[in-house]
Amino acid sequence: MSPIPRRAILKAAAVAGAAAQFSWAVGQGSAQAAAPAGDAPVTVEWLEGGGLGAAPGSTFGVPWPQGAVPAGKGFTLAGADGKAVPVQTWPTAYWPDGSLKWTAHAVGPEAAGIGRFTLTPAAAAGPAPARALTVSQADRRIVVDTGVIRAVISKDGEKLVESVTRNDGGTKIATDGRLVLLRQSDLDDGDQGNAKWERFDGEIGRAVVEQSGPVRAVVRIDGKHRKASRSWLPFCVRLYFYAGAESFRMVHTITYDGDQNKDFIRGLGVRFTVPMRDAAYDRHIRIAGEGKGFLTEAVKGVTGLRRDPGAAVRAAQVEGRKLPDPSTWDQRVTSRLQYIPTWGDYTLAQLSADGFALRKRTKPGHGWIPAGGGGRANGFAYVGGVSGGFSFGLRDFWEKHPAQLDIRGAAGDAAEVTLWLWSPEAQPMDLRFYHDGMGQDTYPEQLEGLNITYEDHEPGFGTPYGIARTSELMFWANAATPGADALVAQAAAVRTPPQLAAAPEHLARAKVFGGLFAPVDRSTAAKARIEDQLDFLFRYYKDQVEQRRWYGFWDYGDIMHTYDEDRHQWRYDVGGYAWDNSELSPDLWLWYAYLRSGRADVFRFAEAMTRHTGEVDVYHLGRWAGLGTRHGVQHFADSAKQQRISTAVYRRPYYFLTADERVGDLMHDLVDSDETFLVLDPIRKIRTEPYEPDRHALSIGFGTDWSGLAAAWLTEWERRGPKAAKAEARLRSTMETIAAQPNGFVQGTGLYDLDTGRFAVADKPVVGVSHLSAMFGLVEMCAELIDLIDMPKFKDAWLDYCRYFNATKAEQAARYGSHFGTLLLFQGHSRQDAYAAAQLDDDKLAARAWQKFYGSDGYTTAMKWEKTPLEGPVVLEPGYEHLWISTNTTALFGLAAIQNLALIGDRMPG
């Protein structure tokens, strides 16, 4: 096979680099204008049931049935008492007829204390926030005023947030919000430590306002970390503000563009300066431990002394209140205050998922004193005093270890706080490839390696260049030191940001995501049995995350692929059997499981997976931008870089349920990913005929390849993004030319023209079916597209594929001239039988769907749904196992069960 020309690589990289660098927001700005009354109201509730708590606000998405709510419609939101709550609304997707498909809604602190809301399409806009949110721009600055705090944001330089000031008194609570990066150029392997660090500071390239109220404002800041002439590690930071809030949220993304052999990240953080105005004994440190635990101290403590200042003084300091005038204290204390140490520096380091250590010192140049420790810290702290202070927290603190919180200089005029996303006290971030290639220099050798370790290796492909990671942070500008209950509430908001959601009944009624799910139904013994099995599988993976410690900055959110029953361990170190990287769509299984159940624990599990798989498993820069990496020991290790991993189909549910801008960016960036087929041929190692990518004749599969492209095009089209016209045209032209193939989907692949967006129609029929083709979102994409686009020939082609995959070889041969060969994954494909049965009202197909579901492969009726306890010495940590469970089978069983129940649940065998 001919190598890929360098010119093709450079051309595709240029195309990828020309994609939009800054996100767009449909309907940004003010809430929708009033419109005539529309569809029935929808009830939305908090996922965890705890209300808004101390969070600044919440944003949520709601779908609407096609034709129910006209574009431009207004919305009102009311609590259980019928009182209207200020809400900001914007559309996130439209149906083809122009009606609203998904809307996003933002609420601020005025939603606090309300547990349930009613969202109603309305003729009149709801009330304005009691405290107006304003956004203004001047002199290279953006100023956001929530009515309670005022944030000044830079458009250039190194200070992302110049200041955060409270409006009541004009007190500056924080200044100089900035990004910090520590790099070292080599690693200390052995017992000699010579590695040197250097610091880079985040430098703003551009700052834009994406939303400006009335309830929610969003500012996006993009740039790179710079030192002298070198600028690297691109960042994207979004700041979220809500009307009436004293806090704000940050979503922070970095994309790795260094040399894995030279650019070792030693520390990665977000830093603020906090002015300290109060007497040292009126300055307070609060650092969260586990649960509701806190370290509660003052910079200069007056408790536990040999002389007692008085009970009232001691109580006030512990509670964070201003102390009485020192003249009222016992003068044996007052006269000796200068001899009480001031503790200005604190560090909490979480270097593993299971342990944190807390220490403090008086000032640099002096020794550290242990101040406690524990298992899993919440990642939250406060520094300040009775005249005001700064609370700050990092979400998933211990799950994405190594993390760290620093407070420095609290005894001086200003404290410096740093939230370390990667702790400088940990080992440097090492992204080097994990083996030397072992002589796999040619395709035949690499295929032999695939046949033993299941790893598809290729020199130069195991690179982290272009992978990304997103972190979430929250900050409060407090008027005074918060009380214990307020601090607990703030820490809880960091750990689990409150999320509003519509009920499964409404989600199903709107018929979004192909209408392939229905609310959980235990009305019969057969249905209840499947529900129990689905619950078992979710619980198993949730428990395995904990038991096997699937945590860490780059790893959290993913699960493992296959189990090693001999070692009683997942195959974390065996080639392609290790991290799952979305293989066979566990992301979809989890999201459909949430959509039908409304369970908060399922939502949070799926949320973590979406944050991981969309960032870490996908390239966002470089020649493979737009492609994801197949499963492996490292998330970027395998040489198979494909659409099936980067596909937007895995991100769509989270985006539409939350309106998360970062995930929206990820999907938008994939619109032009058809250009990647110029750079990399997905099946280059197994081709039997010469092939060189040609812009007008690119070999693209109708399964895992096209489904990924179609998901990005559909999302752009229904969001009415900047490339919506192109996306719609690509959808229609590829659907039309797939349907026109002699064997439709069974043809397998076609030659695609990048300029016309069409497949060439083959001159002879070919059978090119793989058991993987439909298992990475194709089922779900086709169901959505058939509902949205009236194209009978496409529908017929898809129904044929659905009907014949699980047919007998004789039936396949009679229809297509030859059978499909030796296939697998019949249980996963039973949902295609179910779809065709529902579309054609075919009882025989429904019966076959259930037969393939219960008795073909996968988890059949022979499955033992039980747990086998494990303990030492055969395992590192006690727990349990189930030897029959694998992630491939789990994902397909879960999707088949959910979709079969929704489509043909009324035709189940007894």
UniProtKB/TrEMBL annotation:
InterPro entries from the UniProt entry: PcRGLX/YetA-like (IPR045793), PcRGLX/YetA_2nd (IPR048330), PcRGLX/YetA_3rd (IPR048331), PcRGLX_1st (IPR048329), TAT_signal (IPR006311)
The organism of origin for this protein: Streptomyces coeruleoprunus
UniProt xrefs under Pfam families: PcRGLX_1st, PcRGLX_2nd, PcRGLX_3rd
UniProt keyword list: Signal
Stretches assigned to the PcRGLX/YetA-like N-terminal RIFT barrel domain: 42-120
Sequence intervals crossing the membrane: none
Domain PcRGLX/YetA-like central beta-sandwich per the UniProt entry, residue ranges: 134-491
Signal peptide: 1-25
Domain spans labelled PcRGLX/YetA-like C-terminal alpha/alpha toroid: 497-908
Name assigned to this protein: Tat pathway signal sequence domain protein
Domain of life: Bacteria
